[in-house]
Write the structure tokens for this entry.
Amino acid sequence: MGPVETVSLNTTDGVRLSGAFRPGPPGGLSYVLAHGFTGSSSSRQITAVAEQLGRAGNSVLAFDARGHGRSGGYSTLGEREIHDVAAAVEFLRERRPDSPVVLIGWSMGASSVLRHAGLGGDADAVVSVSSPGFWWERGTRPMRLVHWAVMTRTGRLATRLTRRTRVGSGWVYEPEQPVDVVAAIAPRPVLLVHGENDHYFPIRHAQALADAAAAADFWLEPQMGHGEHATDAQLVDRIDAWARQTLGGG
């Protein structure tokens, strides 16, 4: 694994993104890592995943989504983040043209990679961890707090000051839900991962995605919580093994 490179990406809608690229040796996979809401490419959890995948012989690009970390723009909670994913894939296609590109997203990042690929975006395989199946979940306390953080002026200010996340003023049009587009990713392989103890999105979100994408692999993980914070090293190894087997690289 080579030294970590700080890179700059430009989206087609004019947002500059910051990322961290770990180049791997020839023959490995190329991973895009898309963090969850209020996360970043430099968080302890994403860094650990990137380092682990890099040690396994892969190239890894983790990026700060718009409105997060060192990137410009404002967060749209998975709507326009599909452009962020597209910019990351384009970067890897240029730097590793012979390497299959695998998208891994967590929570908001998971909905972003599903929507990117489901709406025709470039990828060879997609891994969704803790994605919502549909919008407007208010049945859990954490999601009620998220709605306050993004839908009120006070919440957006608090999110900016305490989590360094800049949130836009809201959707002009409601974007396609992950459950509405996940089937269109086929025939490209999809892995859906969800924790039984996800306190943001109940299991019905994951089951709806699995029902919509009959060809997808679905792992319902016992005792797992939500997002990158609940992703341990064993799960990362299993995801990498799944991608290699699915894409013929291991």
